[in-house]
């Protein structure tokens, strides 16, 4: 069983993770389209203050982008010591302290300090 997060943008657009990247819907979930230029398998997703954070359950892939420019994604370096197969199916972001938290498959809970 997989659990995929649904995030909601400031304009009401829904975002959902999938095996090909992230899909979005601007019509309440009736139709979905793949976000272009983002070709990473994702499972974890959170939107905070107009910024999307995504992660992969099967690798240490962490990514971020502004909802205002979803064509420009930044790869976030994984936590030191995290094995390459201990990805994060769940992520959350603490905006007050600039910390991305991740619950990693067989790898425990990690935190990444963001700039």
Gist?
The chain is mainly β and 115 residues long. The protein has a single domain, classed as Neuraminidase, CATH 2.120.10.
How are the secondary structure elements laid out?
Layout: E1 6-8, E2 14-18, E3 21-25, E4 33-34, E5 44-48, E6 51-55, E7 62-66, E8 74-76, E9 90-94, E10 99-104, E11 108-113
Antiparallel strand pairs: 1-2, 2-3, 3-4, 5-6, 6-7, 7-8, 9-10, 10-11
Structure description:
This protein has 115 residues and is mainly β. It has one domain: Neuraminidase. Helices cover 0% and strands 43% of the residues. It is built from no helices and 11 strands. It has strands at residues 6-8, 14-18, 21-25, 33-34, 44-48, 51-55, 62-66, 74-76, 90-94, 99-104, 108-113. Strands 1-2-3-4 form a 4-stranded antiparallel beta sheet, with no helix packed on it. Strand 9 (90-94) and strand 10 form a beta hairpin. The mean pLDDT is 89.
Quaternary organization:
single chain
CATH architecture identity: 6 Propeller
Question: Looking at CATH, which topology would you report?
Answer: Neuraminidase
CATH class: Mainly Beta
Features:
Neuraminidase; mainly beta; 0% helix; globular; 4-stranded antiparallel sheet
């Amino acid at each position: 069983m997989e659990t995929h997060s649904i995030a909601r943008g400031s304009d009401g657009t829904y975002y959902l993770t999938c095996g090909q990247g992230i899909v979005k819907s601007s019509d309440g979930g009736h139709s979905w389209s793949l976000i272009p230029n983002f070709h990473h398998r994702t499972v974890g997703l959170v939107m905070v203050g107009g910024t999307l954070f995504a992660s992969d359950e099967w690798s240490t892939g962490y990514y971020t982008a502004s909802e205002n420019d979803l064509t420009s994604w930044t790869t976030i370096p994984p936590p030191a010591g995290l094995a390459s197969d201990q990805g994060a199916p769940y992520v959350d972001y603490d905006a007050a302290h600039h910390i991305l938290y991740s619950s990693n498959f067989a790898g425990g809970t990690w935190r990444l300090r963001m700039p």
